[in-house]
Amino acid sequence: MKNNVMEESTVRAEAETSGRAVPACCMSAEEMGRKFDRGLKEAKAAVEDKFEDGKREAQRFVKRSRFAMEDKVLDSAYRMKKNPGTTLAAAFAAGAMLGFLIPRLGKR
Description:
- The protein is mainly α.
- It contains three helices and no strands.
- The longest helix has 54 residues, at 29-82.
């Protein structure tokens, strides 16, 4: 009966020449530790990159939102100066509607 178990050096040499990864059964604990550290460093770098990308996107979003809000405020101020009667009527209508709805919602 022939033993089908290959020696560690044979398996390692075959894996290295073929470009495949060395099986875990043929690695020493030190080699496995180095491989684990290398993978951990790569994962850490990938997470840090994604975090920085997300942070940068959030900062851009806040900046764009602030500029958009400033534009709307300036546009509203311009419209109030150009059409004061319409602005006054809209403010009165909004106040009357709130004055009508708030007491009724509070009675529930």
